[in-house]
C-alpha cells in the first residue's frame, strides 16, 4: 500500500506516524509546502518573549528524524497543487525549482490546516504586516522586532493567537495595542467571565480596544472605525484563520457552507480513498449533536489516529468533540469547555448558569487564590453543557474534570457529587466544581432565586434595593452605591428593616454568606429575595474594564480585588 499525506504538521504527521505503526510495509510520503514539519504551532507566540529560547526548539521532528524513526518520506517545500481522483494521483510542485511531477496513491490523507486571514484593508500594502501561523512567520516577526527600532506593536484580533501574541510581546518589553472588532476578546468565554481577563490585560499595560475595527492603515498606524488612531511600528494580523480547502474544492470533494471538508465518522471524505483531518474539516459536536468546526491541536491528533485506524481496517468509535481549551493571560490561567451561555442562546437551548467564587485550595495555604467558576446547564434536565474557570491557580484542571463529565453526559448533580482529590495545598474538600454543582442543583429545584453580575448595573441604576451582608468594616472599604449594610450577624434582629413589597437583592463578598441570608429570610416568609451570584468581588471584576475604558460612572464606591 502507498499512503500519501498532504500537510506535515499536527494532523498530517500524526496520521503518518500512526499509519507506520499499523503497517510496517507501506510506502508513506508526506508533502509539506513549508520549510518545517511537525512543529509546536501552539507554542509559536512564546518565541516572541523568549519563553521558547530558540526558534529551532519549536520543531519537534525533521524530515530526517521522521525517516530514521518511522521510515516516512517527508518532502518539504513541496506543494500539492491538484488531485486526479480518477487516476488516484496528485500533482506536486517543487517550490525550490518550480518543477512539477505526479505521485500516485492508494489512500490519500488531507491535512492542509488553515491559513491566516489577511483582509484587503485600505492602506495595508504600506504597512509592515505579520502573521503568526507557522515557524517561518515567527522567525520573520522575531527577526524584525529584534533587529530594528521597534517599540510599538499593534495586534489585530482578540482570539487565542492575538491574545497570546499580545501577552508575549508585552512580556518582551514592547508597547502593545490589541484591537478587537467585537465587544470582547476570547469568544470561548462568556462576556461576564472574560471581563476578568480584559482587566488583566489592562492592568499589565496592554492598550486593549474592543468594539472597534480597523478601517484603514496609515503606514503602520491603525485608523479605527471610531476615528481613533493607534500608532505602531509593526502590525500582527490575528483576526482568525480560514480552512485551506482550495485543493479539496478543486478536486470536487464535498464541502460545507463555510468551506470546510465534510467527512464521515471515520474521517473519510466524499471520495472513499481520500481522508481529511485537522483544521480544514467539519466534525461532530457531542453537546449540540450537530456538525461544527473545531480548530484545535488535540482534536486534530485524535482525528489523525482514527483516520489511520480506519484506513488499516481497525474499528473507529467517533464520540465527537466538546471543544476544550485553555490560555494563560499574564498571571491568570483560563480554561473553557463545551458551550458558552451565548452559544446556548444561539442554539435555542433552555439553560441556566451558576457562577461561584471559592478559593482554589484551603485559604490558609500559601498561594491560595480565588477560582472564578461558571457552569452552564440544561433546563430542566440539569445536563452540563459547558464550564469556564479563571484563576491564578489551576483552572485547567477544573475544566478537564468538567470536560470529562460533559463527554459522558453528566448532570449538575454528578458535578456536585464528584469525588475529587483533596489535600490543603491542592484543593478544598468541596472543589469549585462541586460548589457550582450544588448551586446549579438549587437553582434547578427552585430553592432560591439569583441575579447575575451582568444584571446588577441595570438594577442599581433603576433604584433596586440592595442589602450588603458583609461586616461594616468591609462595607466601608467599598460597596454598591445605595446598598444598605445589614451584616449577616445582625440580620435576624434587623429583619423589620427589610421590605417585603419589592425585590431585595442580597450580596456578600463572593455569594456564599448572602445565600445563607437569602435562605434565612425565605424561612421568615420572604418571597422576594435574590442572591447576587459572585458577590461584590464578582461585581467589581465585571464592572472594572468597562468603567475604565468607557470612562463611565462606577456603581461601586471602590473596587475590591
Describe the structure.
The protein is of the alpha/beta class and 561 residues long. The protein has 4 domains: 2-113 and 242-311, FAD/NAD(P)-binding domain, CATH 3.50.50; 124-239, FAD/NAD(P)-binding domain (3-Layer(bba) Sandwich), CATH 3.50.50.60; 331-444, FAD/NAD(P)-binding domain (3-Layer(bba) Sandwich), CATH 3.50.50; 449-550, Oxidized Rhodanese, domain 1 (3-Layer(aba) Sandwich). A 5-stranded parallel β-sheet has the order 3-2-1-7-18. It has a 5-stranded parallel β-sheet with strand order 9-16-10-11-12, with helices on one face. It has a 5-stranded antiparallel β-sheet with strand order 21-22-25-24-23, with helices on both faces.
Descriptors:
5-stranded parallel sheet, FAD/NAD(P)-binding domain, 16 helices, globular, 561 residues, alpha/beta, 24% strand
Strand segment tally: 30
Computed over alpha carbons, the radius of gyration is 27 Å
Structural class by secondary-structure content: alpha/beta
- Unreliable stretches (pLDDT < 50, length at least 5) are none
